[in-house]
Amino acid sequence: MDNRNEDSAAPSDGESSPRRTRRRGEQLVGAIHEAAILEAADNGVGGLSMEGIARRAGTAKTSLYRRWSLPTDILLDAMYSHFPQERPAPGADDLRGDLIDSLAMLTELSSSPLGQAMFAVIAESLRDPVLHERFDDEVFGPRGGRFTRTVLMHYAEQGRIDPARVTDVTTDIGEAMVLKYSIDHGRAPDRDHLAQVVDEVILPAVGADPRPSRTP
């Protein structure tokens, strides 16, 4: 019987560890993923350890080593599993609303433990180029990359906007402006401000300016 994903031993650090219940399969993996994200959010990537993840997950280190070799392996796996996905309207009939929703998803992510873990990875990547490359290859890229990119690509594929306008620059605009607002104001922008970003910057950049034309 293959029990590689079975939680079969208690943590070794006694009363300081969470109470362990017997788990296996996806339930155990989910607990370990959550623990890795919370550990990175609280302690940064430099403070991430198999011991800390196991303690927070309420399992033994052996349960981790059956599947992963390093704590960063667990973290990247967890981030891939939990990274939010943009879901544009199937009929490609609400570009503005889909763009606002995608930016709202970014603001929610930024204030969550997953977002804090992501920022911790980005900070550590300045010292560890390999980690940066892995984050891009294993998480950011496969999950759609820049926020609004999935939406813009969807509408371009459906012939609703010019594909030539969907570039690295236009797909970066919304994300850059949301992050700048957060830095400048110490809080995430509200939905009204996100709508302004979409109406005044992103839509004009892709040739879909919703504002009335000005006559001379």
TrEMBL record:
It comes from Nocardiopsis changdeensis. It holds the Pfam family TetR_N. It comes from the Bacteria. Keywords: DNA-binding, Transcription, Transcription regulation. SUPFAM superfamilies: Homeodomain-like, Tetracyclin repressor-like, C-terminal domain. Residues 26-86 form the HTH tetR-type domain. Residues 49-68 bind DNA. Residues 1-25 are annotated as: Disordered. This is TetR/AcrR family transcriptional regulator. InterPro entries: Homeodomain-like_sf, HTH-type_TetR-like_transc_reg, HTH_TetR, Tet_transcr_reg_TetR-rel_C_sf, TetR_C.
